[in-house]
Specification:
By secondary structure, the chain is an alpha+beta fold. The protein has two domains: 212 residues, Orthogonal Bundle (Endonuclease III, domain 1), CATH 1.10.340.30; 119 residues, Alpha-Beta Complex (Nucleoside Triphosphate Pyrophosphohydrolase). It contains 14 helices and nine strands. Strands 1, 5, 6, 7 and 8 form a five-stranded mixed beta sheet that branches. α8 crosses α11 and α9 packs across α11. This is Adenine DNA glycosylase. Keywords: 4Fe-4S, DNA damage, DNA repair, Glycosidase, Hydrolase, Iron, Iron-sulfur, Metal-binding. Its EC number is 3.2.2.31.
Length: 348
Amino acid sequence: MNFSKIIINWYSAHKRDLPWRKTQNPYHIWLSEIILQQTQVKQGLPYYLKFVEVFPTVFDLADSDEQKVLKLWQGLGYYSRARNLHFTAKYIAEELNGNFPNTYKDIVKLKGVGDYTASAIASFAFSEVTAVVDGNVYRVLSRYFGIDTPINSTQGIKGFKALATELIDKKQPAKFNQAIMEFGAQQCKPKNPYCIICPLQEKCVAFQTNKIENLPVKLKKTKVRNRFFNYLVFLDANHKTLVEKRTKKGIWQNLYQFPLIESEKSLSIDEFETFSKSSEILNGKTFDFNLYNEADIIHKLSHQHLHTKFWIIQLEGELENAVSYSELKEFPVPALIGEFISKFKFKN
């Protein structure tokens, strides 16, 4: 029995019951793939179900405003995915009359769609023979064949794609692609894989040579940058506060936040008081303040660690262009801000 048959037979017996596996609707498959990029199924499933409920067709998604899309996406992170999702929905609805591209060659041209996502959509929705290679696939192939080429190197990316293309079952490409990804997610897991009951065990190079923990190989990531964020949570006499929109490109573009002061280090209360005197945001205002969290809340992103403090600014007067506390829940915000809003007791 060859590799492909073993994988497909395993999948038939062990696959999870997931809604996007019950359809060939390219819109729904595309939604699931974008949501599941860098997101585990357990976390992504509720988002997928909500998106399909709120935006049942690509036209519904295209007709929505970006703020609503970002709000629905809140908590998933990597918000550029949501912005690209909305942009591409508009393109498909307006330029292609709602007809989703049906070949890998055309799908990969869509904004926010790379090789993996295009291969997944082309095979799952249109049965095109094109191999998917995600983190699960890299892991299965590198361990089974004993390949130590770094998976995030140019050579590795090309080599693993070629190998997956060679192995794919040409009669049932969708099933093979689903099977090898599911095998990596459930059987050949990153840590503590089920090697003892693995159907590939006999010919698995990593198992036979005791290199399971060493494969796959990945080049070291870019050095993590530490940043220090001070959010100013204003509370005025009318039970209102201030929020601002992040319009510059970068993390959390087009999301809302409390006014932000970035410092070169974590500030003590005395340092913040001195710092505030030179701040344009606070200059000229009469206020009392206190620190919500003495220890920094550290929010980890792929290349940045955000060391965050929330400063509660109590004003005697009224704020201009302010929003009521109850309105806060309507704004799409980063998970870091959303968690604070849910915990802090805004009193009307």
